[in-house]
Structure formats: structure tokens, C-alpha cells
Design goal:
This protein is mainly α. It has 8 helices and no strands. The protein folds into 2 domains: 5-126, Glutathione S-transferase Yfyf (Class Pi), Chain A, domain 2 (Up-down Bundle), CATH 1.20.1050; 139-175, no CATH class.
């Protein structure tokens, strides 16, 4: 099964199960949520947004060497392809599966800020922008982004200290 099991099944057994479609919403809606979770894992993360973010940022933070330009180029090409799929799928909808906010919206939407930060052309996709604006207007989403933004200075400091940037452990830093 695709995606994080905590994301897939985290809502079951809780008083507020509104993030996962209930049987009332039909098996088709449940299948659509699982399809978007699988799409996010296989394409949006692994082959586009996440690939570029890993190469441009995570590798530095983790000390895994310099970014690989070939992987960045591949991720940027894939972003264009997959963003078009997402954009077309959102046309005429409020949320990914229609009028109901689900865990799939959070899973796919989680990479939009990283995509923007990594210079991917999110602004070229109007439906994604409108959908993400609705998502980012949710109080819980705003709080999560504020916490992430508060942590960004420490993240940037760790990038500056990484070996491929010539920080204290790098060739230029004497490490």
C-alpha cells in the first residue's frame, strides 16, 4: 500500500474521522484518496518535488555530498509533467476528490512550500495555486507553516555548515 501508514489509517478510531472518507462517501471516494496518496508518494515526492528538495537541500543537511545536477534536472522535468496532472485534476474542484477536504489534500499539499522554495514553477499552475491557497487558509495549516518557518534559520545554518558548501567540515573549512 502506498503512503505513510499513519497517514492512511491515522484517522480511524478517533472521534473526528472527517479526514478519511466514510462509507457514506462511497468506495470510489476512498479509492480516490488512496490513489492520490500513492500518486504523491510515487510521483510528486519521489520523482519531482521531493527529488529536487533532496538534492538541493537535504543532501547538504545530512552531509551526503553535493547536489547532483542530473537528478535536479530530472526532478524539474518531472515537476512540469506531474504539476500539469495535478493542475488538470483540480480544475472545477475545491479539493482533490471534489468538495470534501481529505488527508490526500494534506499529503499532496505538504510539498508545495518546498517546491516553491526550491524554485520549481508552482506559479505557472493556477489551479494548484487556488487549491493551495484554500489549504493554507486552514488555521491548523497556518500554525504548522509558522512552526516550520520558525525552524528555517536553524535549517539554513546547518546548510551553511555542510561540507559541500565549504563550511567548517568541508575542504574550504579545514575539516
Amino acid at each position: 500500500m502506498p503512503g505513510d501508514p499513519h497517514v492512511r489509517f491515522g484517522g480511524r478510531g478517533h472521534r473526528n474521522q472527517s479526514m478519511l472518507p466514510t462509507p457514506i462517501l462511497t468506495l470510489k471516494c476512498q479509492a480516490d484518496v488512496l490513489r492520490w496518496l500513492a500518486w504523491e508518494s510515487a510521483h510528486w515526492d519521489a520523482e519531482s518535488c521531493g527529488m529536487v528538495a533532496f538534492e538541493k537541500a537535504s543532501k547538504a543537511v545530512l552531509g551526503l555530498g553535493p547536489p547532483d545536477p542530473a537528478f535536479i534536472a530530472r526532478g524539474e522535468q518531472n515537476f512540469t509533467r506531474f504539476a500539469a496532472v495535478l493542475n488538470d485534476s483540480l480544475r472545477g474542484k475545491t479539493w482533490l476528490i471534489g468538495e470534501r477536504l481529505t488527508i490526500a489534500d494534506f499529503s499532496v499539499g505538504a510539498l508545495v512550500p518546498s517546491a516553491e522554495r526550491m524554485g520549481l514553477p508552482v506559479a505557472n499552475y493556477l489551479e494548484i495555486l487556488c487549491w493551495y491557497k484554500r489549504l493554507s487558509a486552514l488555521p491548523a495549516w497556518r500554525e504548522a507553516l509558522a512552526a516550520k518557518n520558525a525552524a528555517m534559520p536553524a535549517w539554513r545554518t546547518s546548510i551553511a555548515r555542510s561540507s559541500w558548501c565549504g563550511g567548517p567540515t568541508g575542504v574550504l573549512g579545514g575539516g
